[in-house]
Design a protein that fits this description.
Layout (H helix, E strand, L loop, with lengths): L1 H18 L19 E2 L32 E2 L6 H9 L3 E5 L5 H12 L4 E5 L7 E5 L2 E5 L6 H9 L35
Parallel strand pairs: 2-4, 3-4
Antiparallel strand pairs: 1-6, 3-5, 5-6
Amino acid sequence: MRLIAVIVLIGVLGFAVVVRPAPAQDTGTPEAGTIADLELFEVASNDHTEGTVAYDQNPPAGGPHNPVWQNCGFYDEPVRNEHAVHSQEHGAVWVTYRPDLPEGELARLRRLADRSDYLQVSPYPELPAPVVVSAWGARVELDGANDPRLRQFVRQFAEQGPEPGAPCTGGTDETAPPAAGTPVATPATPTA
């Protein structure tokens, strides 16, 4: 009798495992929120590459990336796009700022980075706005570090990449920008 109960239990558990669908890996567009001027993008690939990538957005919001992610935290020097995009895949929000951002705003960004495990902050030459915040498939141009949309974006998109919960530490702290002659990204048409 005990053997029959075990067989029935194994059969039921086996059936439960078989009928439970596996979660799909989403590499596409995140859900739109209530953030003003939010741009959403379809991300077609999350492949690994050792090379330099010409992204559709500047700074990028997902796509092919280096196999090594950028550690989250605050940086005084630019980081490679390909490392930062890998962190976005893990659910990191990447806050980029113009190198001439006022010190008070930089201090605010440092404090924000210190309080989040999934936030990386770095300068980015030739930004289209004083601060641009991006995540996998989403970005918004901000008026500065005091723009209230910054916190909204972080709340909505932190830990929301295709690999949520993957580490944002144990990668690289490399701060070398892309080599001279690297293709410049061109703005893409947003999906929403």
